[in-house]
Specification:
It is a single chain. By secondary structure, the chain is an alpha/beta fold. Helix content is 55%, strand content 8%. It folds into four domains: 1-159, Serine Threonine Protein Phosphatase 5, Tetratricopeptide repeat, CATH 1.25.40.10; 316-374, no CATH class; 392-541, 3-Layer(aba) Sandwich (Rossmann fold); 556-730, Glycogen Phosphorylase B (Rossmann fold, 3-Layer(aba) Sandwich). It has 35 helices and 13 strands.
Length: 757
């Protein structure tokens, strides 16, 4: 979604400290053209235009400043830093340039240079508050609280009574960005108090923005009711940017219905805005309302061309079960946007769902798309970590996904609770935007928590080195909010990927992938760009920390019409999967199929899949579609399923383990790579090898055979959780020790290699 700029970015809006005088007509035209591109967010074109202006008139101060700003926006931080240095050598009296050079140095993690830049800005214009407040921010970041408090006070004095609330408000935002929610709340309350004391009229949108920030702080602190009330107060806003930001915040905190209500109001208030329709379309697609999303997208495109339309259509295709169309669109976008495009990761993810690609083709595609991430990578030998084999290990986790219902959170929380802090010290580098009670729980379970959402790779890499991390563990792969470029350039002596992505990343300098002997059997090493660290049992251990009551499987379960089921998301319901399940239903004539997924709250999705099954000869009345509910209610719904059917080629992960936990055995097919062998891993670990098929024909035969013997099935269902709890793969204490041992083995391999080197 398009959201308003932060207070810091507002200070870098188009502005000129000197009028454009005594320049050639060509320079003036280029400068104006650059400003037009800048306002449109077209940074490359803007940069080229400002360079053209400077070629005509080298002493054109505003063009030099704008060029440096463009380089910042393009992420070319070293070039931007050089640009500021060159400009300030020529124009040392430019306050904005010193201020923004300080911002850039702070973003790059060069804190002393940032402070020096802010000091120069203060010396130039001591009556302005921005540089003083920025200096206070950096001093707080470094832990120099007394010096920071003094500079904070000076910023308030410089701002004067009329702008004091702005100073407090900005400091609240800075603190929240750093992860210091308690002190952010303190500053935010000061901002609101100043507003009340001065009784100045306040714009309704500014009031809404302040309430949003207050709500965000409350939510981070676990004060959910207060947060919801603040968001409700923010709904008085009327500007498009304010409403979009409110919707985005609501969406982050799983308030999907509220977010969409805000965006629908935004469309009502701004019916001629293409962005209003676009943002509603984006929200609808993210919440699995596919047909309505496409309708809103069409309305946006009728008003103005939408650069993100192809990406949205790719997302809709993938979420509708057309992985190959999604892959085609994402690859085209990646080619258009070049090596830095996030569409490479979207294409990689789509390839895992494809019915048409072989495991080797998937592996080759990953290697091809991400080879560039290893260019100019840091050498392993440049790290100076103590290579003692038995000392405590400093392990860093990079993840955005510690929040309710996310698989990474479900599987990692029990492990974090059990890791031996004497052997493994964990630092979490949190790159997400969603916070809830699970985020707070994870924060308590690690030795150190670093809020890194807004950090660039340079900042995060520098902090990882400062923390002395030995092993950096990626928990995202190519999913959203990933930091693959960070790992590709190497940020720690040992790097591994685990849990967040079901297969090889193809990213250079990720040294290890944690697997097991079933998802990555002997002989499959060629499918992985990483070395394999195989855990002794199953790669994932399902040990829920919430009590989900086990269904009472009475005799009635053996007498009702047999129900097959799948709770997997729609992207996994590929044409191959639909044909396979239809064959099962034909083989078991009186059975039905229960399909549950977020998409099936959308009538369009229900109709589409009903038609796909009808094309395979399955009548609509044999299908049951259910939409999303809360996790506890969802787990209880497994009592309505007799046998779960796994998807191919992208197997169920969390859903299959949840099904087993609730007494529902799963028919699986063992494929040729990690993503298509997860089901085989889980079922073999449970001692249920006879539920694992090698071919489509085996899959249909096993499903039909297990469905015919209802008494044997009932007996299995009644004791399935006890069976799992007796198996090594479900022993979370042992799994945690095995996980620690795997980390130690990675470190020993590094230490031994370093000694040989």
């Amino acid at each position: 979604m398009n959201t308003p700029q932060s207070p810091e970015s507002k200070s870098t809006d188009v502005q000129t400290d000197n009028d454009v005088r005594e320049v050639s007509a060509a320079a003036a035209q280029a400068f104006n053209r650059g400003n037009a591109h800048f306002k449109a967010g077209q940074w490359s074109q803007a940069c080229a235009a400002f360079e053209a202006a400077l070629k005509e008139t080298p002493q054109m101060e505003p063009a030099a400043l704008q060029r440096a700003r463009c380089l910042v926006m393009l992420g070319e931080h070293q070039a931007a830093r050089d640009g500021f240095a060159q400009m300030l050598k020529a124009f040392p009296g430019n306050y904005s340039a010193w201020l923004e050079a300080g911002h850039l140095c702070r973003q790059m993690g060069v804190h002393q240079q940032a402070l020096a830049s802010y000091s120069r800005a203060i010396a130039l214009e001591p009556q302005r508050f921005e540089a003083r407040l920025s200096m206070a921010r950096v001093l707080e970041d470094q832990g120099h609280m007394e010096a920071a408090a003094a500079e904070y006070h000076r910023a308030l004095s410089a701002a004067g009574a009329e702008k004091n609330h702005q100073v407090h408000w900005r400091m609240a935002k800075y603190r929240l960005e750093r992860g210091d929610a308690p002190r952010a709340l303190e500053a935010m309350r000061q901002a609101l108090l100043v507003m009340r004391l001065h009784k100045e009229p306040q714009d309704e949108n500014e009031r809404a923005e302040m309430q949003m920030d207050l709500g965000d702080i409350f939510m981070r602190l676990g004060m959910t009711e207060d947060g919801h009330r603040a968001f409700e107060r923010a709904s008085v806003g009327t500007s498009e940017a304010t409403l979009v930001r409110l919707a985005d915040l609501s969406f982050r905190y799983n308030l999907w219905q509220e977010a969409q209500a805000v965006l629908r109001r935004n469309v009502e208030l701004h019916p001629d805005s293409d962005l209003a329709h676009w943002n509603l379309a984006h929200s609808l697609a993210e919440s699995w309302h596919m047909q309505e999303a496409l309708e809103s997208l069409a309305k946006a495109e009728a008003i103005a061309p939408q650069p993100g339309a192809k990406s949205m259509r790719a997302s809709v295709a993938g979420r509708s079960g057309d992985a190959d169309m999604a892959l085609t669109l994402y690859k085209a976008l990646a080619d258009e946007e070049g090596p830095g495009s996030k569409m490479h990761s979207s294409a990689a993810m789509s390839s895992l769902y494809s019915d048409k690609l072989s495991p080797q083709e998937v592996a080759d595609l990953h290697r091809e798309m991400f080879a560039h991430l290893g260019q100019n990578a840091r050498a392993v030998s440049s790290f100076k970590n103590d290579k003692s084999p038995d000392r405590p290990l400093r392990v860093g986790l990079v993840s955005a996904d510690f929040h309710h219902q996310h698989p990474v959170n479900i599987f990692m929380q029990p492990v974090l609770a059990r890791l031996d802090r004497r052997a493994v010290e964990v630092t979490m580098y949190f790159t997400g935007v969603s916070y809830d009670e699970q985020t707070q729980l994870a924060k308590r379970r690690v030795a150190r928590w670093v809020e890194a959402t807004s950090w660039n790779d340079s900042q995060l890499s520098r902090r990882i080195e400062e923390d002395g991390i030995d092993i950096l563990l990626d928990l995202s792969g190519h999913t959203s909010m990933q930091r693959m470029s960070l790992l590709g350039h190497r940020a720690a002596p040992v790097q591994a990927t685990f849990l967040g992505y079901p297969g090889s990343t193809g990213v250079p300098n990720i040294d290890w992938l944690i697997a097991d002997k079933v998802v990555a059997p002997e002989g499959s090493e060629g499918l992985f760009s990483e070395r394999l660290m195989r855990l002794p049992h199953s790669v994932f251990c399902f040990a829920p920390e919430t009590d989900y009551p086990y269904p009472d499987y009475g005799q009635a379960h053996a007498q009702r019409p047999l129900t097959f089921g799948s709770f997997n998301n729609v992207p996994k319901l590929t044409p191959h999967t639909v044909k396979l399940w239809a064959a099962v239903l034909h083989e078991v004539p009186d059975s039905r199929l229960l399909l549950k997924a977020p998409s099936f709250k959308d009538e369009g999705a229900i109709e589409a899949f009903a038609q796909r099954f009808q094309a395979e000869g399955i009548a609509r009345e044999r299908l049951v579609f259910r939409g999303p509910v809360g996790l506890t209610d969802m787990m209880a719904e497994y009592a309505d399923v007799d046998i779960a059917l796994d998807t191919v080629p992208y197997n169920g992960g969390t859903t299959s383990l949840q099904a087993l936990w609730m007494g529902v055995p799963v028919v699986v097919k063992a494929g040729g790579n990690f993503v298509s062998r997860m089901g085989a891993s889980f079922m073999s670990a449970a001692g249920l090898n006879d539920w694992v098929a090698e071919t489509d024909a085996d899959y249909v035969r096993i499903a039909a055979s297990m469905a015919r013997d209802r008494q044997a099935l009932l007996t299995l269902k009644r004791g399935l959780r006890e069976r799992l709890q007796a198996a090594p793969a479900w022993d979370i204490d042992q799994y945690s020790r095995d996980f620690e041992a795997a980390l130690r083995q990675m470190w020993l391999a590094h230490a031994e290699f370093a000694m040989l080197g």
